[in-house]
Amino acid sequence: MSSSLEPSSEGHDQPTGGLKSFIKAYRDAAPYLALGIQLAATVVIMFYIGYWADEQFNTSPWLMFLGLGVGASAGLYNFFKTIIDLGKKEEHEKK
């Protein structure tokens, strides 16, 4: 049975073969993995802030809709800004 780790000069085990390619793929994808969670969290948090404000000021449902709109707008702005920035970074690294 062969091991997928080999010792390095510093005494730490280094991944080899398929594990190494998996780690590289995961590192390349990592910045994108959290984007969906960030988008959803922004929308949900702003929705609940609007809901809370509606209860405080008795303006139901207008501030809730405003919070939902602001959350969706801010979340989408951050999503696309991050995608564009990461794309530029990858282009620059290829050169």
Structure in words:
The chain is mainly alpha-helical. It has a domain at 33-95. It is 77% helix and 6% strand. It has 3 helices and 2 strands. The protein has helices spanning 17-33, 35-57, 62-94; strands at residues 5-7, 13-15. A two-stranded antiparallel sheet has the order 1-2. It is elongated and about 60 Å long. The chain starts with a strand and ends with a helix.
- How many whole angstroms does the radius of gyration measure? 22 Å
Instruction: Compute the separation of the termini in Å.
Output: 40 Å
User: How are helices and strands ordered from N to C?
Assistant: EEHHH
Give me the count of strands.
2
Tell me, briefly, the overall form. Answer: elongated
Per DSSP, the total helix count is 3
Average pLDDT metric = 86
Widest sheet: strand order?
1-2
Chart the SSEs and their pairings:
Elements: E1 5-7, E2 13-15, H1 17-33, H2 35-57, H3 62-94
Antiparallel strand pairs: 1-2
Helix pairs in contact: 2-3
Features:
95 residues, mainly alpha, two-stranded antiparallel ribbon, 3 helices, 77% helix
What's the gist of this structure?
It contains three helices and two strands; from the N terminus they run E-E-H-H-H. It is mainly α.
